[in-house]
Amino acid sequence: MIRRLAVLLGAITLVACGDKVVGATPTTTTAVDCNLSGVTVTPAQVTLKVGDTVRLKASGGTCGQPPLTFFWKTSSTLASIDSASGLLTALKPGAVTAIATAVQNPAIQGAAAVTITP
Description:
Blueprint: E1 3-4, E2 12-17, E3 20-26, E4 39-42, E5 45-49, E6 53-55, E7 57-60, E8 70-74, E9 79-81, E10 87-90, E11 94-102, E12 109-117
Parallel strand pairs: 5-12
Antiparallel strand pairs: 1-2, 2-3, 4-7, 6-10, 8-11, 9-10, 11-12
């Protein structure tokens, strides 16, 4: 009786008969190229005057899964941002980074550079 034993060793399928290997057949492994760390924030750069607002949008890395959802924060108090909608309000002159973080995996982030003028 021939027993078929599939073993993943460097993408090789082994065919065994008793204790002895009687044949080896290469197999093909298909990998899906999926970059979950690739979050796109639009606009990626924006210049605002104090008091102006902009709605930032984030997208990325679905990889056959449901779309990612994001929450927002800023790098400083020069601007405020609605954590759910991405609506950023310029409060004081300076440079701020707006950061979108995936709810499903906080290691997945994207950012936009915001310059605020008087």
